[in-house]
Amino acid sequence: MLVYGFAQGNKDMRDLLGGKGANLAEMTNLGLPVPPGFTITTEACRTYLDTGQVPAELHDEVTKHLALVETARGKRLGDPGDPLLVSVRSGAKFSMPGMMDTVLNIGLTDRSVRGLAEQAGDERFAWDSYRRLLQMFGKTVQGIDGAHFDDALDALKRDRGAPHDVDLDAGALRELVTTYKQIVRAESGRDFPQDPREQLDAAIRAVFDSWNAPRAITYRRQERISADLGTAVNVVAMVFGNAGPDSGTGVAFTRDPASGARGVYGDYLANAQGEDVVAGIRNTVPLTELAHLDKKSYDELLDIMATLEGHYRDLCDIEFTIERGRLWMLQTRVGKRTAAAAFRIATQLVDEGLITEDEALSRVDGHQLAQLMFPRFDERAARQAIAHGMNASPGAAVGRAVFDTATAVEWNSTGEDVILVRRETTPDDLDGMIAARGILTSRGGRTSHAAVVARGMGKTCVCGVETLDIDVARGRFTAPGGVEVSEGDVISIDGTTGDVFLGEVPVVDSPVVRYFEGELDPGAAQAEELVRSVHRLMKVADGRRRLGVRANADLPDDAARARAMGAAGIGLCRTEHMFLGERRRYVEALVLAEDDAERTAALEALLPLQRADFEGLLAAMDGLPVTVRLLDPPLHEFLPDLTDLSVRVALAGERGVRDPQDERLLRAVRRLHEQNPMMGLRGVRLGLVVPGLYALQVRAVAEAAAARERAGGHPRVEVMIPLVGTVQELELSREEAERTIADVRERTGFTGPIPVGTMVELPRAALTAGAIARAADFFSFGTNDLTQTTWGFSRDDVEAAFFAAYLERGVFGVSPFESLDVAGVGRLVDLAVREGRAARPDLKLGVCGEHGGDPDSVHFFHEAGLDYVSCSAFRVPVARLEAGRAAVLADADAGSASR
Amino acid sequence: MLVYGFAQGNKDMRDLLGGKGANLAEMTNLGLPVPPGFTITTEACRTYLDTGQVPAELHDEVTKHLALVETARGKRLGDPGDPLLVSVRSGAKFSMPGMMDTVLNIGLTDRSVRGLAEQAGDERFAWDSYRRLLQMFGKTVQGIDGAHFDDALDALKRDRGAPHDVDLDAGALRELVTTYKQIVRAESGRDFPQDPREQLDAAIRAVFDSWNAPRAITYRRQERISADLGTAVNVVAMVFGNAGPDSGTGVAFTRDPASGARGVYGDYLANAQGEDVVAGIRNTVPLTELAHLDKKSYDELLDIMATLEGHYRDLCDIEFTIERGRLWMLQTRVGKRTAAAAFRIATQLVDEGLITEDEALSRVDGHQLAQLMFPRFDERAARQAIAHGMNASPGAAVGRAVFDTATAVEWNSTGEDVILVRRETTPDDLDGMIAARGILTSRGGRTSHAAVVARGMGKTCVCGVETLDIDVARGRFTAPGGVEVSEGDVISIDGTTGDVFLGEVPVVDSPVVRYFEGELDPGAAQAEELVRSVHRLMKVADGRRRLGVRANADLPDDAARARAMGAAGIGLCRTEHMFLGERRRYVEALVLAEDDAERTAALEALLPLQRADFEGLLAAMDGLPVTVRLLDPPLHEFLPDLTDLSVRVALAGERGVRDPQDERLLRAVRRLHEQNPMMGLRGVRLGLVVPGLYALQVRAVAEAAAARERAGGHPRVEVMIPLVGTVQELELSREEAERTIADVRERTGFTGPIPVGTMVELPRAALTAGAIARAADFFSFGTNDLTQTTWGFSRDDVEAAFFAAYLERGVFGVSPFESLDVAGVGRLVDLAVREGRAARPDLKLGVCGEHGGDPDSVHFFHEAGLDYVSCSAFRVPVARLEAGRAAVLADADAGSASR
Q1: Does B714 qualify as catalytic in the annotation?
Q2: Binding positions of B for substrate
Q3: For residue range B643-668, what is the model confidence (pLDDT) as tens digits?
Q4: Residues spanned by CATH 3.50.30.10 within chain B?
Q5: Angstroms from B826 CA to nearest CA on chain A
Q6: What is the mean pLDDT of residues B577-588?
Q7: Which of A646, A728, A806 lies at the smallest CB-CB distance from B221?
Q8: CATH 1.20.80.30 in chain B, residues?
Q9: CA distance B34 to A816
Q10: Is A885 annotated as a binding residue?
């Protein structure tokens, strides 16, 4: 069966009927007034695309369903006296807005156009409909360059002195039809088909073909929609909102998509078709006006909205048309909403008894929660919006406008906040982007260089503000209305909304963050509805989730904040900072040591400092696990840069003021210099090659635990070995760690457990996880490094260099550093989980890469069966929410699978 | 069954009985005179190691078998009047020479020592045997520091004025026994056990325990021998070669292990035990002397040697003892031999009808063939050997001795060949090692820094020449005999044999290479036997192998050489060199281009040059496939070094002679500079981001093919896209390549196929091979990069920094760059082969990493089911030989599995 009448489908048949077709069928079966029509399945499309042939049965099935439509409407397709007209629209499983083709008014011919004019009593309407068919059919089905039609229309308007299309009368449009038919003949080599069924069949094929239009292919590549799905085709009897003053067209929402409040929201345009609304030729009126224009239709629409919301149990958006006082539903779907509205609506629907709390949880997501947590411009403050662009990277940034990287870096170095303003950014602007509080561009979308790099940096960015005229050379830009902003003027940009403001707008903390930090009581009477909604859904999530959530934190303050945010421990304490600042001199001493005594002295100087660091951390996380990763980066990261030092030494030599210490250091830096430090002497390799380094750290950890225990605390520390590629590395470093711990136990009497585990951050660790698990108490997936090695690119180098181009061309759907690459990196994680647990059933499994706080990735980690995720403190609530959602959605899937 | 009498086992039971036990059983069943004894299985050992308890049944089984030995020898263990003595020796499945323990003379007590003296009629012999038991038992079983025994022996010798052990008479030895017993009591807190069975049981446990001695653990880690195997224990009735002038001990080979010639080879030492031979106290005589000393035993031995060789169908080595005119066989195994002898013996055995040609092929290997292919010192030239060390990295190198890196670099820069001489090398010596022709050290073995790095570089190295006294400060070394070599003196080192010569020894090409290059006719009467053997076995290998062998070659000359060596095409043509030298200026122009016109001009200037390169290559490989890899390295590799250029620009500024071109270049170099270039903008990423670059290369390839076809040739070119991580990259670059090829076809009329495929050199490519295969005509595994990314280390950085330490500590068994890491990288290869072929059954699969020429790796690639390997020209014969062996051995395995 390749064709389904609307009464034969339902909303769950999106695979076969596409989203639009499935919802049209659902509305039909609800008894709502949907124009008669049918849907040609995606399967028919797939067969056509595979074989190049329309399936043999399709013709007869279309004939049969077309006859039913004709019967329902009491007209025949293209009947010269009173023609049935149909639209042919694409409708894939996943929305691909504007990517594929539509042909309206199929059924008009030289003869039936007159019948339509007569029946409608409107000559102009009929000829306008016909010229629209010729234009759409010519472009879409016959592949004629649309400029030919546009040029002819423009010429006619000039000729007639008509400023707008609507100023052309019936005679002019009839003339245009003649011109269009000539264009069709000249460009396609044949006449426009006068057989209505031939029109219909050709339009269906054209919609099939449009699945493989270049823009559709790129869009699918970007959105990771499978190229194999194909599109359904909806053939629907045309109804006309432009059939006179008692006709019209509109959109409606079953509740306010911004606040979630119930009510009547939407717009209406009398005597118009959908495309007129899009073209913005006339202004729409609020939907409530319809009550005065056509009370009967308005009441019917309100009834239908109530029905749909009750049925879909969610906010729906609706497209409708009134043809001569009769209401027709053309489309519905679950409506988009703002992040705040999503939380409010979800809890409202629970209060209204429409959905369960689990369902409410599934209606919001971590991306929305994260958006709500960014600082925002104070809503009560005065502000002057001067432009609006793409909300490329969320946040609220205020600073002086600068127009080049050098100025950005220079001003920032004096403590000035700056916003970097560029037409578009390139890799050359990287330092300027780092120096700026925010980035503003006039070109490029969410996949532009500016957007991609800013998101990678977590920096506020508004891009593609096309109304700005930026003059970099003169250091100024002009906004609509003649507003001029020069270098040094303060501007404010909202990366969450895309707004650009003149002057400083005060920034306030998000109330959601203040709630998480315990500053707002969600139970208080004056608490915002949003905070109450978030609080309620967080409780649901915490009750449902199976994944633990820890934080990545290196310092006691970070740990305390993470704990407030709900972290159940530290999944990653990086010990790098313990070698920075003042302590660099010990690393220099370690590197320059010429004998064991010097080396030992350098290490011993570090011991009390490190022990104090760990004591603070264990105090802040008392009673909760704290995973300490031993030193990971190469030692030269703690030394001066090779190029800088080389220049310094060369210049000193030139000036005759040589510095022996600098020269000695330069030799060491040269010796330790690596071509590819990320793939060099770091992690466990350092631990095995630099005598005493890891032992020092393990001693500091164990002694800190002992000290905390003596002080009455409950330290739960874990030692984590980074960058292990083979079990032998782990065995050797573990042996050394166990010896050190045993020694500390003996001297302090400390008896608590100190598990020793490893990062899994190299493909080889994942591939040999079964062997490695035998020497590990836990695995923590370092998905940042695992992404870098699995793909063979270093984030520092490639994000700026080519990620924008890759996203633009659809090589990536999303940066693999933002959201875990399930097919590649995820496969390694899955394999390591399975084989690690098989070798050691009590193996504890977590993730401590940034993906631990990414909503989509959290679902993957839930499904992979990890015990916990660990992420930055700020992301802890997001992870908690998504972990709850993952559990709920997995249960729902299991439920539907078992039904 | 935990104990096997020798008559119950056979040579195929190595898993259970160990190598020594299995061969003793085999000889026993052949009716050869093996002293009676039995083998305790590895299973008993494993149980003991797992549980800490000797398995319950073992005691009774030992009792039973011991009784059989007693019956056979007509003596009882430790019988005071005429004691049976036994040895207790370890014997694992894989030889672990010197790693585990042995106890001889079990059964001697204060009473039975007198019985032994009486029976042997030799007081001194009995007391010497007893003191040896006390010493071995004390050290091995009771864990007493051996220095105690050595000190006591030395004191006694001083006391008696006896220069050697043998100068001590029976009385002195009896006194020594008393001293030793005191040491045992003092150190172990108990008396030496006077119950012979207690001695036996304790010795068995001690041998079990020695499986887990630290040195054994490290050895197994290095050799990748599983820690789970355990050792067997052989209990054998003692026979004494030191029982008088009609006794003795010796070793024998069934043919000459150096040449393979049949005859009597070996050494004999009268009135001595095995350990005396090892101690080198007296000189052995050639085995043929035995004919004069003991004709009967000699004839019997020759008979046995013939029996063994016929039975094992290979060269055997033998240990034997004659006790009072009676010959006993103590051990046999298939004997070691030189590389040249391996080839000669294998073909001789075929000629003698002992083995088939397939078996002969399995008796040689690619490591041996590679050894035979290195240039060698002319055998006919005079030479003065001054020392001998470890043959760490093969080859023959001649040069002036230098003692530090700075001098090595300086002299080399003036065209001088140098040999770097160091006590040992460190990462600081890297530049010197690069500059030297060869490396000579006095410390460290095959896993020392010098050895590992030299092998990685393919550079000749002799290390651990402990007889050299190297004085780096004075720039000279002294060899035995007072030979002194100072900086600048010429020396010659042979990395294949470990020899060090004074002065220049002429180097000649290997006759095997001259044969491969067609300069020697193996059929000629005067051809060396070695060349004839190699030729014959290569024919067998070529007839049997399923893997094709191609070469990695970039230039026409290389291609021609590879073809002579038997390459069936080029598996990897790197196009990097086409951007080097003079052509760098085009790359600079490309990088500095400020508009499309400048970029296009730079690319177009390269087109005719590249086309000519490819034409030459296709001509050299006419009729055979040539796989061209599009540009892989990052563009900044073709530009000056950042640090050098920064210093130059800074100094020019300081001197007031600024160079605008240098400054412009510096900005470009800074912009393109990458933290980790290996993981940066390279490979297909360059192709997708630098407009026109890959199109230029594809055009050059296609036009070259067209030109060759016009000239009457048969070009078979393939285009390979490097560094693909996701199918989208391949699709996009393939689309562009196909467009370019179509354009060339249209303009030239060329119609031959040009397959487009990809490297698989990133873990993600392997993990998503099923998807990638749908866009690829072939895969070529780039196992160098795949090793780097799977392990997360860059060869440049880590080989010098920590590979030596890793090999030493057994983290690696062998460098994963030398031999493919089957557990990690190999798993990815296997997965990609399986899923790539499943998605596309006609997918062509090859490997073009250096592993393609590594003998062990070739077997893996055969088993993985690849179509071909590609390696350097020099390695092509090695790969051919091993591909044949892989096929033969796989068939043999399949045969034995089906039996």
Answers
A1: no
A2: 574, 629, 761, 782-785
A3: 999 999 999 999 999 999 899 889 88
A4: 383-508
A5: 10
A6: 84
A7: A728
A8: 66-237
A9: 68
A10: no
Tell me: the pLDDT tens digits for B467-497? 999 998 899 999 988 899 999 999 999 998 8
Please identify every residue of A annotated as catalytic: 449, 848
- Residue B164 designated active-site: no
Dump pLDDT digits (tens) for A231-278. Answer: 999 999 999 998 888 999 999 999 888 777 778 888 999 988 877 665
**Do residues A253 and A286 touch, judged by C-beta distance below 8 A?**
no
Whole-structure pTM value = 0.88
CB count in 10 Å sphere of residue A31: 9
HSE-up of residue A367 (Cα within 13 Å, Cβ side): 11
The least confident of B85-89, B507-511, B807-811 is B807-811
CATH 3.20.20.60 in chain A, residues? 543-583+591-633+691-898
Looking at residue B418, its amino acid is V
Mean pLDDT of B103-121: 94
The CATH H-level superfamily of A248-337 is: ATP-grasp fold, B domain (3.30.470.20)
Binding-site annotation: residue ranges of B for Mg(2+): 761, 785
List the CATH code of the domain at A543-583+591-633+691-898.
3.20.20.60
* A574 carries a ligand binding annotation: yes
pLDDT, averaged across chain B? 92
Q: How far apart are CA A741 and CA A694, in angstroms?
A: 12
User: What radius of gyration do chain A's Cα atoms show?
Assistant: 33
- Which fold, A66-237? Acyl-CoA Binding Protein (1.20.80)
Assigned token pair, A494: 């909202």
Distance CA A94, CA A224 (A): 11
What is the per-residue pLDDT across B733-759, written as a single tens digit (0 to 9) for each? Answer: 999 999 999 999 999 999 999 999 999
Strand partners, A40: A3, A233
Q: Which two tokens stand for residue A888?
A: 């709920």
Residue from A685, A809, A820 to probe the interface with B (highest B Cβ count within 10 Å)? A685
The b-or-e profile of A417-436 (16+ CB within 10 A means b, else e) is bbbbbbbbbebebbebbebb
Nearest Cα of chain A lies from the Cα of B597 at a distance, in angstroms, of 20
Q: B769 to chain A, minimum CA–CA distance in Å?
A: 10
Q: Which of B449, B535, B636, B859 is catalytic?
A: B449
Interface of B with A in 789-808 (CB under 8 A): 789-794, 796-798, 801-802, 805-806
Residues of A in contact with B821 (CB under 8 A): 764
Q: What single-letter amino acid sits at A108?
A: L
Q: Is the pLDDT of residue A520 over 70?
A: yes
Nearest to A631 by CA among A689, A589, A576, A594: A576
CA distances from B552 to B36, B456, B574, B629 (A): 58, 18, 8, 11
The closest CB to that of A790, out of B642, B764, B788, belongs to B764
**Residue in A689, A767, A821 nearest the CB of B805:** A689
Q: Using N-to-C axis directions, what is the helix angle for B584-592 and B596-620, rounded to 10°?
A: 150
User: Is residue B839 within 8 angstroms of chain A, CB to CB?
Assistant: no
| DSSP result, B766-807 | HHTHHHHHTT-SEEEE-HHHHHHHHHT--HHHHIIIIIHHHH
Considering only residues 539 to 568 of chain A, which have any Cβ-Cβ distance to chain B shorter than 8 Å? none
Q: Where are the beta strands (DSSP E) in B180-282?
A: 231-237, 248-255, 262-270
CA–CA dist A108, A79 (Å, integer): 9
Fold category of A383-508 in CATH: Glucose Oxidase; domain 1 (3.50.30)
Measure B794 CA to nearest chain A CA, in Å: 5
ipTM of the complex: 0.87
Q: Where in chain B is the domain with CATH 3.30.470.20?
A: 248-337
**Res. A280: pLDDT tops 60:** no
Q: Is residue A391 part of an annotated ligand binding site? A: no
Q: How many CA atoms lie within 13 A of B644 on its CB side?
A: 4
